[in-house]
Amino acid sequence: MPELRQNVATKEWVIIATEGARRPEEFVQPDKERVEDRPEHVATCPFCPGNEELDLERLRIPAQGDWIVRVVGNRYPALRAEGERSRRFEGMNPSIAGVGYHEVVVESRRHNTSPATEQPEEVERTFHAFQARGRAFRDDARIEQIVYFKNHGVTAGASLVHPHAQMLGLPVVPYSIRARMEEARRYFDDRGECVICRLRQDEEQEGTRVVLASEHFDAFVPFAALSPFHLWIVPRSHRASFLDASPEELRDLAQVLRDLLRRIFVGLNDPDYNYVIRSAPDREADSKYLHWYVAVVPRVTRSAGFEMGTGMFINTALPEESANFLRTLAST
Ligand SMILES: [Zn+2]
Ligand SMILES: [Zn+2]
């Protein structure tokens, strides 16, 4: 029998295709041009050293000498920093001026790398850059929600090859985030505990879906994983906002994320992927029921009409087999 599973934190249902589920090896990507086979420096790339668009620069780490990571404003931003956040109505339809922030973290000086092949220090400094700019966004009263993510590869939405991540400061809390907050609050009201703390502890005890555990994090394929090799990296200590993660946690997270992405890179032949840092709205930073974490989604299958029509996914791999596959891969 196929099985429907529900994620207790998000309330999302997924169909796990237990019959005819594909073996993990069947998701290995066909050979394609690898990132590391491209040139290390490209004269026309706006993110390569020597081509820095200084008018767009918001931060460089370190501030002096050769930078390791940089943050730049998006050349074609989805939102702009100038303006008032005022709500208008056209008939019954609300709208707000597109105020906010849309910035890019250039993760490396090298054109031909990605977090899987970067130095751990580069991944760690990407998180430092997220935090430094995130704190600046937070101090802007017009900003309600910050989202941090990376698109790796064309099918994951990346339009430039040079390794980069993105962050946006939004003037609203998006509906799907609001819905998760409501579920987390309800769970806390019913049970008196944070649902993500509990989920992490349960996964740790159960063990079959855990891929790796570090000092500060557990990485596991969720019980109701929406797609093959879908991963959550959950901090052990309860904090609602990523901006409150400690420097030690960021260092550990960089190791954990890089380790997982290396396993995916090696084991599945560099599939496209997205990662997202899910963090509470900043006015909820002290919440006892919201808990930040990182989700990683390799793009080894395509979603289509069914997902669009239902918001529900069909996972053609067993979460336990996905976890076992990643667990047994050496990351080196
Ligand atoms: Zn470049
Ligand atoms: Zn928690």
Radius of gyration over alpha carbons? 20 Å
The span between the termini is: 38 Å
User: What sequence of helices (H) and strands (E) makes up the elements?
Assistant: EEEEEEEHEEHHEEEHEEHEH
Helix fraction, binned, reads 25-40%
Return residue spans where pLDDT drops below 50 for at least 5 consecutive residues: none
What spatial form do the alpha-carbon principal axes imply? globular
Oligomer: single chain
Distinct ligands: zinc ion
Count of extended strands = 15
Walk me through this protein's architecture.
Helix 1 crosses helix 4 (247-267). Helices cover 26% and strands 23% of the residues. The strands form three sheets. Strands 3-4-7-9-8-13-14-12-11-10 form a ten-stranded antiparallel beta sheet, with helices on both faces. A three-stranded mixed beta sheet has the order 1-2-15. A two-stranded antiparallel ribbon has the order 5-6. The two termini are 38 Å apart. The chain is an alpha+beta fold and 332 residues long. It contains six helices and 15 strands. The structure holds zinc ion (ZN) (2 copies). One zinc ion is lined by residues 42, 45, 47-48, 111, 162.
